[in-house]
Amino acid sequence: MTHSRIEMDHITHKTGKADCLSIDTAIIGAGVSGLYAGYRLLSGDFMNDKHRPDSVHIFEMDTRVGGRLESITLPDMNVTGEMGGMHYDTSYNITTTLIEDIFQLHHTPFPSGDPNDYLYYLRGKHFKGDEWARAQDRGKCLRYLINCAMWTKGIGSISFCKRLCITC
To answer: Which residues form the Amine oxidase domain (predicted)?
Structure first.
């Protein structure tokens, strides 16, 4: 079965509160991580069935699942807008397997161009994606100053310095 979107009526769920609810495993939040944790707990392989939970309850305060992932149809248009994550890299093996193989969700290729043209912002400096390779082609190193205080807070006053980082 292929879904382009999973709605709450596709998922067995209860609303409201229950007295004397017996909970084996509780997951707070039905975002991507909470849903994946529940999926793995219910479908995963265990060394022995002693560790398999009898039930998994996922609690969500919103009226929908997905957390920060949300697709909306823009008013008066046949256009879907993404309010959270909009694409995934196929190098994310778990994500790709879940989307394409396990749940067989509709997906559209989203090419993002040449990685050499990407712009990066690292510790206060801008870099082009191919800057490392260009420096090495010239027999040089990529050098940049970093402010140690930005990433070593709490280690001591000696760390509040500037260091020359050389990546070769």
So the answer is: 32-130
Q: Which carries the bigger pLDDT value, residue 141 or residue 163?
A: 141
Which residue segment(s) compose the domain that 153 sits in?
115-167
> What is the mean predicted confidence (pLDDT) over 77-93?
82
82 and 125 belong to one structural domain: no
The answer to whether the beta carbons of residues 150 and 121 sit under 8 Å apart is no
Residues 27 and 77 in one domain: yes
8 Å CB contact between 84 and 62: no
Helices (H), the chain: 32-43, 93-96, 131-137
127 SS3 class: strand
Q: Angle CA(136)–CA(141)–CA(146) in degrees, nearest 5?
A: 140
Helices (H) and strands (E) in the chain, counts: 3, 8
142 domain residue, yes or no:
yes
Global model pTM greater than 0.85: no
* pLDDT for res 29: 94
